[in-house]
Each structure stands twice: as C-alpha cells, then as structure tokens.
Design goal:
The chain is α+β, with helices and mostly antiparallel strands and about 525 residues long. Among the domains are: about 185-260, no CATH class; about 365-510, PH-domain like. About 40% of the residues lie in helices and about 25% in strands. The chain contains 16 helices and 22 strands. It has helices at about 30-40, 40-50, 55-75, 115, 150-160, 195-210, 220-230, 235-260, 300-305, 340-350, 365-390, 395-400, 405-420, 455-460, 485-495, 500-505, and strands at about 20, 80, 85-90, 95-100, 105-110, 120-125, 140-150, 175-180, 265-270, 275-280, 285-290, 295-300, 310-315, 330-335, 420-425, 425-430, 435-445, 450-455, 465-470, 475-485, 505, 510. The strands form five sheets. A seven-stranded antiparallel sheet has the order 7-6-5-11-10-9-8, with helices on both faces. Strands 14-13-12-17-16-15 form a six-stranded antiparallel sheet, sandwiched between helices. The chain has a four-stranded antiparallel sheet with strand order 1-2-3-4. A hairpin with a 6-residue loop joins strand 19 and strand 20 (about 475-485). The longest helix has 28 residues, at about 235-260. The radius of gyration is 28 Å and the shape is globular. It comes from Amycolatopsis echigonensis. Keywords: Membrane, Transmembrane, Transmembrane helix. Pfam families: bPH_2. This is Membrane protein.
C-alpha cells in the first residue's frame, strides 16, 4: 500500500517528515489460526452437510476469504504519530483511514493476551473517552494489534505525555504507590465473582440440554447422585448442596482473583500519570493522567465489608464505567483490607481521605430508609397475594415474603448508618448503600453543576438529595436524604456562588424541588 498523504481535513503540519510504522510481522503466525478457529462452525457445517453438493466449496471459500482478510489487515496496516495526531491506514481492496487528534486521546491501554505473549507482542488500545454503543472497538478506540513491548511502551509514553519522538527524553523512575499482597487472596471468596461464573456455567448447560432434549440426571454419576439425594432427608440435601456450592464458588473466586490481579502494581510516573499493571495469563497496562482524575471511589459490597475488605476505583475522565469498560481499567486497588484501600485513596488524592469525619444524617433519614425497605417487601407480598387470589400461584409465596420484613428493617437501618457526607479540601465526599456501600470523593472544581432534588415524600419529611454531576465515572454522585437546610448549605459550599441567587430572597431562604445546573 502506498504511503499517500492523508486528506486535508486530517493532515498535520510537518506530517510528511514523520515515518510510518507497520504491525509486527509475527502476527502473521497468529492471525490465520485465530481466523480459522472462528470459521470452524461454518467450515464443519459445510463439510458435514454439504456432501454431494456445492455447499462444502462455499464453506471453504468463505473460510479462505476470512483468513485472507486477516492476513491483508496485518500486511497493510500502518500508523504514525505526528505532532498533532495519530494516523492509521489499512486495507487492500477496501481501504480505511483514521486520524485521532492527540489532544483528544484520554487512555492508552497495553494488553498482552496469551496469543501476544507467545511472541512477546502487545496490543495498544488508544481511546478518546467517547462511549459509543455496540460491540468491538468503535469510533472511541483505535487498536494496534500487535506491536512489540518496547513499541507499546513508547506509544504509551508518547501519546499520554504529549511529546514527539524527537523531543522525548529519558524519564526518572516511577514511584510505587501500591502492589498486591498474596495474603489478600483471602478476600476473593467474598467478591461473588465465582458465583457469577457458576451461574453462567449452569445457565449454558441448561440451555444446551434443553435445546438437545438431554436430561443430565440420566447420565452415569449424575444419576447416582440424584438418586442418593432423593433417598436422604431434604434438609441434609440442602446443606450438602449449599456446602458444595460454597466450595466451588470459593475455588473459582480465588482462581479469578489470581488470574486478574497477579503482579498488580500501581505506580506514579514523574509526568503526573498513574500506571496500573496486572494479570497472570493476560496482562494489562492502564495509564491514567492525574489531570483527568476527578476523584476516587471506595466500594464495599456487603460480603466483602463483613470481612473488612474493600476495593478502590478511580473516577477519571475518559474511563468507561461498568460492563465493557472493565473492565477494571480504573481499578486502583483490588479487594484488600479496607484500611489499605483508604490509604491508597488518600495517596492518590493528596488528601487525608482515610480520616475524614462524615456528617451523620438526621433521624428523619432513618425513618425514610426503613419505610422504603419495608414498603418494597409489602409490595412484593401484595403482588404474590394477587397472583394467589387469581389461582396463578399457591398461598405460601406471599406468606413467605412477609418473613423478609425483619430483614428489610435491618437493611433500612444499615443503609441509614452508611449515610454520610463531608467537604474536605478540594473534595466533596459522600457515602451511601448497604448491600453495595460506596464512599466517593469528587473534586468540587470539576463538577459540571449542582442539583438539589426533593421528591413529594422528601418534602413532607424536610429532606433533600444533593446531586453532584461530573464528567467521569457514573456521571453523577448523590448525597441522599440530608436535611433541607443542611443540603442547601452543602450544595452552596460544594460549588461556591452557584446557588446564591436562589438561597436569598428578601432575607428569606428559598427552597425548591430542582435547582438548575451549571453547564
């Protein structure tokens, strides 16, 4: 493919002097095998069902085209980094060109899967922070698959530190902030990750068994196990099944913890970048510029909190939140002692986050928390009663649901105990939740506005919810059920001057359901 200059809209000043780079040719040993594996269902189906007709040749042709496209991608892909943008060209018959301005680059992740590590290669994922929907890398991401480890580190430093290759100078060594302790693996069974794996496996097995009309309990050992379970008392079967499930979930959780967080290291580079490395079989390297850091979040799910554990996550612009993001990209500390998580949060923020005294909410918030929890159980029981009245369900489900009332009261009380907020230095701190408690500290000078929300029931109780929007993480964080006067004062302190016109009118305090935000 000719190294033609890019079109005028994406051309960069001085780009003609910047050399082009190609993907590592060792990828040609991997890509055809991967494409062949992906095409196996089509190939096998064509060979088995196409005997005596032309379908087998169509399957072989489709497989050959898939492999050819993969080889063409490896041979024709080339990229270069200019003073203003990164450019990428690929394609033989159908050519593709992309250019991303360097000032829009938010993340540069270095990923080494087993297929890469076999030949000492890495994949570089360059993201702009746009959260486009759909599968695979979209407009928000450019993937260079694959380059050498040295080239991946050069691109990471070059793109994140906003330097050109000609002016790049050796950097002082990075400083260690945190690294994994092998003793922390004891927190793995309380992350419930193993339970998710077991549920996925059981769901997949059930689906295929149902589609194939296959009864697993009629097969060898499973048949004997089922017969034995039916012969013994029900309570013993339940206890043994629960114990077996607990052991299986614990083993899978420990295995997942080791695979994900082996050799976890959080370091700070002299250029003001947090660098995260982790992984055993698949290694991942993530860089977060501290200029784009908006805060941190301490997550304490109930099982993990019961054993004194927590994990620390970055709230940063450009990092995706939830599924598909990890994707763990902003994980500053894996499940570890809660004190260690708060210590790392303080180190990252530069504030004494661990010892911030949180303001407790009033008893009216306690009443509201318990009322909401109890009402949810009563609503469930009423729905089950209606189904029983219609002879859709038996009587016992709605009666059993009422047994949850004491637990609902306990959950409501625990949610109240978790409520708290504070303002310390540059940060607004808020804590809430019971089953999934979270403590968040966000920078006040990076908030995109402030919202004071008051529902009908909150108005009757004299409470408000203060919402702090931020262009990072979940997008906004809430201070739940705070007294009306204290909430308005908190909102005014969090973003000084923004609410002043709404708080004073003729010497009286003005309260309203939703105050406007600042763009």
């Amino acid at each position: 493919m000719n190294a033609a200059a890019p079109s005028p809209p994406v051309a960069a000043e001085g780009a003609g002097d910047t050399p082009w780079h190609r993907l590592d040719r060792r990828m040609l040993l991997i890509r055809p095998v991967l494409d062949l594996v992906k095409s196996l269902p089509v190939l096998v189906g064509a060979l088995l069902l196409g005997h005596g007709n032309n379908w087998q040749w169509i399957g072989l042709a489709a497989t050959a085209v898939t492999i050819g496209v993969g080889i063409s991608h490896c041979l024709t892909s080339r990229y270069r980094v200019t003073a203003t943008q990164i450019e990428w060209h690929t394609g033989l018959l159908l050519r593709k060109q992309r250019a991303i301005p360097r000032d829009r680059i938010r993340t540069v992740d270095v990923l080494s899967e087993p297929k890469h590590r076999l030949f000492s290669l890495s994949a570089v994922r360059i993201g702009t922070g746009r959260h486009d929907h759909g599968k695979g890398p979209g407009k928000d991401q450019l993937v260079l698959d694959a380059v050498t480890h040295a080239e991946a580190e050069r691109l990471r430093a070059l793109l994140l530190h906003r330097k050109t290759a000609e002016t790049e100078a050796p950097q002082p060594p990075e400083s260690l902030v945190a690294e994994v302790d092998k003793r922390w693996v004891r927190y793995a069974p309380f992350t419930l990750s193993g339970l998710a794996v077991v549920a996925a496996i059981l769901g997949t097995v059930y689906h295929f068994a149902h589609e194939l009309h296959f009864d697993p309990t009629s097969f060898g050992p499973l048949r004997d196990l089922t017969n034995r379970a039916l012969e013994q008392p029900v309570w013993l079967t339940v206890v043994l099944a629960a114990a077996g499930l607990l052991v299986l979930v614990s083993v899978l959780s420990v295995g997942g913890y080791v695979l994900s967080f082996w050799n976890f290291r959080l370091t700070r580079e002299p250029g003001g970048t947090l660098h995260i490395r982790r992984g055993l079989i698949t290694t991942r390297s993530v860089s977060i510029e501290e200029d784009r850091l908006r805060g941190v979040e301490i997550k304490e799910p109930l099982p993990l909190r019961m054993v004194g554990g927590a994990k620390c996550v970055a709230v940063a612009a450009g990092l995706r939140e939830g599924k598909g993001a990890d994707r763990g990209g902003g994980l500053l500390l894996p499940p570890a002692p809660a004190g260690k998580a708060r210590e790392i949060a303080s180190e990252v923020l530069g504030e004494d986050f661990a010892n911030v005294p949180l303001v407790r909410h009033s008893r009216r918030a306690l009443t509201r928390r318990i009322t909401r929890a109890v009402f949810a159980v009563l609503a469930l029981s009423a729905a089950l009663f209606a189904l029983a009245w219609l002879d859709v369900l038996p009587e016992w489900p709605w009666q059993a649901a009422l047994v949850l009332l004491p637990f609902a009261v306990l959950v409501g009380f625990d949610r109240y105990r978790s409520l708290g907020h504070a303002i310390t230095g540059r940060y607004l701190v808020t804590r809430s939740g019971s089953l999934a408690r979270a403590t968040v500290a966000v920078r006040r000078d990076r908030l995109t506005g402030i919202v004071v929300h008051q529902s009908l029931f909150q108005r009757r109780a004299g409470l408000v919810t203060v919402i702090a929007p931020v262009a990072a993480g979940r997008g906004h964080y809430r201070v739940l059920d705070v007294d009306e006067g204290a909430g308005l004062a908190l909102a005014d302190t969090a973003v000084p001057g923004l609410l002043t016109p709404f708080l004073a009118s003729g010497g009286k305090t003005v309260t309203c359901g939703n105050l406007p935000t600042r763009s």
